[in-house]
Amino acid sequence: MKKAFIIHGWEGNPQGSWRPWLKKKLEEKDFQVAVPQMPDTINPTMEKWLPHLAKTVGIPDENCYFVGHSLGCITILRYLEALGENQIIGGVVLVAGFGHDLDFKGYKGELASFFKTPINWEKIKKHCNKFVAIHSDDDPYVPIKHNTLFKEKLGAESIITHNMKHFSGDDGIMELPIALDCVLKLAKA
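The structure assignment produced for this chain is given below.
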């Protein structure tokens, strides 16, 4: 059975924005879907989020697909980086993801624990070779340069949307058909 893991971002939750909609749509396509509540979302740390994701997933395989939003994306990438030899997953959709610490106005390094060490892009690609990066041209937190980074470092398919801001419920994004399409495409490829 195909499994999907939808990982929310900083200050997020499983019931927020488009996650319930995507869960329902994937279940209708016979996916087993988990949308875990990540720990301490106000003050997230890699030391808490990574083990929580690993415990949620259990033993990963090629039928596992991941969708991350914002901080959920780097959590997924760090998870892949930490997988054991010969552990391979089916694919990853990165929505408003970032590959290095953020630098928007008002940010004070709250997510620095996710970037204590450089990302090992080659190790990540040993565990997954199908990535899609979805960004918006008006995201106030995560600029388009992160999409370019994922394309260069992971060979990710690049999708740039318009007027979706940070793809959050606060932005009015309660459905995300592009993410659904991408997961289904990855699962068929």
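Interim note for the steering committee: The chain is about 35% helix and 15% strand. The chain has one domain: 3-188.
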